[in-house]
C-alpha cells in the first residue's frame, strides 16, 4: 500500500469517526429536546414524593415545546408549539420565572383562572377546600430530613389525583395565605413538603406557560446521603433500590 493510499485510508477513518460522533450528538440533542431529559432533585421541597438524590426522566412533549425546550433557552420564538395544558396534580419541571437559568420542580395545583388560597394548612381551590386526611407519620430522616416523626396528609384534588404531603410545622408562614388569582396562561405551583418549599406562595409566583419544561415521569435512579451516582462503591449502602423505575405520582 502506497503512502498516498495509507493517508487516504487514515483520512477516511477519521472522517467516519467524526461523522459518527456528530450523528450521535445530534441524536442526543433531538432526544433531549423533543422526548426525554434527565433531571436530579437538588432539594427537599417535594418530599415525600421526591427525595434529594432522585434522578428522573422528564417527558418533554407533555405540554408541547417552548424556547426552554432547547438547550440554553435561546429566544428564537415565544409561546408554545403543540401546547397542551398541564393537568391539576402534575409534577412539573419549569424555569424559575425571576431567573430562567434555574430549574424548579413542583406540583401544579392552580390552573389559569383559578383562585388559590391556603387556610389553616388546607388548600382551597375556587373557594372549595381540597380534602385533606391525615394518614399517619413518617419517622425516617432520609425521607423527611427531620429527627423524629412527621405528620403526613393525603390531598385529593378535584380531578381525583391524590398524593401525600408533609406537615413539618403546624401554623407555619405558608399555612395561611391571601387569595391568589391565577392569570391567563399561568399556573400555581406548590411543593409537597409544604413547610419547606419556595413555591408560588412565595418567591416563585405564577409560572408562565412558556416556562414549563416537561412532566416528571419516572425515577430511574436514587441514592441517599448526598452520594454521587458515579461513586459506585457507595451503591450497596446508599442506593434506594425500592425507588428505582418508580413512576412519579
Topology of helices and strands:
Elements: H1 3-35, E1 36-40, E2 54-59, E3 91-95, E4 103-110, E5 115-119, E6 122-125, E7 128-129, E8 132-138, H2 141-144, E9 150-156, E10 162-167, E11 180-181, E12 186-190, E13 207-208, E14 212-222, H3 235-238, E15 246-247
C-alpha geometry: globular
Percentage of β-strand residues = 25-35%
Task: From the 3D structure, determine the CATH topology.
Answer: Umud Fragment, subunit A
Tally of helical segments: 3
**How do the helices and strands follow one another from N- to C-terminus?**
HEEEEEEEEHEEEEEEHE
Number of separate domains: 1
Largest sheet: 8 strands, antiparallel
Descriptive account of the structure:
The chain is α+β, with helices and mostly antiparallel strands and 249 residues long. The protein has a single domain, classed as Ribbon (Umud Fragment, subunit A), CATH 2.10.109. 16% of the residues lie in helices and 31% in strands. The chain is built from three helices and 15 strands. It has helices at residues 3-35, 141-144, 235-238, and strands at residues 36-40, 54-59, 91-95, 103-110, 115-119, 122-125, 128-129, 132-138, 150-156, 162-167, 180-181, 186-190, 207-208, 212-222, 246-247. Strands 1, 2, 3, 4, 12, 13, 14 and 15 form an eight-stranded antiparallel beta sheet that branches. Strand 6 and strand 7 form a beta hairpin.
Amino acid at each position: 500500500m502506497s503512502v498516498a493510499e495509507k493517508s487516504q485510508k487514515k483520512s477516511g477513518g477519521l472522517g467516519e469517526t467524526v461523522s459518527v460522533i456528530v450523528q450521535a450528538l445530534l441524536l442526543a440533542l433531538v432526544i433531549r429536546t423533543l422526548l426525554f431529559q434527565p433531571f436530579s432533585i437538588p432539594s427537599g421541597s417535594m418530599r415525600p414524593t421526591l427525595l434529594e438524590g432522585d434522578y428522573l426522566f422528564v417527558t418533554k412533549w407533555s405540554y408541547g415545546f417552548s424556547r426552554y425546550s432547547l438547550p440554553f433557552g435561546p429566544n428564537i420564538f415565544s409561546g408554545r408549539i403543540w401546547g397542551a395544558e398541564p393537568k391539576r396534580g402534575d409534577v412539573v419541571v419549569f424555569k424559575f420565572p425571576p431567573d430562567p437559568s434555574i430549574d424548579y420542580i413542583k406540583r401544579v395545583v392552580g390552573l389559569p383562572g383559578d383562585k388559590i388560597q391556603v387556610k389553616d394548612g388546607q388548600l382551597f381551590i375556587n373557594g372549595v377546600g381540597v380534602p385533606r386526611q391525615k394518614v399517619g407519620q413518617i419517622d425516617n430522616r432520609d425521607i423527611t430530613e427531620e429527627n423524629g416523626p412527621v405528620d403526613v396528609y393525603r390531598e385529593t384534588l378535584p380531578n381525583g389525583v391524590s398524593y401525600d404531603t408533609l406537615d413539618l410545622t403546624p401554623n407555619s408562614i405558608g399555612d395561611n395565605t391571601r387569595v391568589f388569582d391565577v392569570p391567563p396562561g399561568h399556573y400555581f405551583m406548590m411543593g409537597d413538603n409544604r413547610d419547606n418549599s419556595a413555591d408560588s406562595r412565595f418567591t416563585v409566583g405564577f409560572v408562565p406557560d412558556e416556562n414549563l419544561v416537561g412532566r416528571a415521569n419516572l425515577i430511574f435512579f436514587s441514592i441517599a446521603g448526598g452520594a454521587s451516582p458515579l461513586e459506585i462503591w457507595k451503591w450497596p449502602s446508599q442506593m434506594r433500590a425500592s425507588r428505582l423505575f418508580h413512576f412519579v405520582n
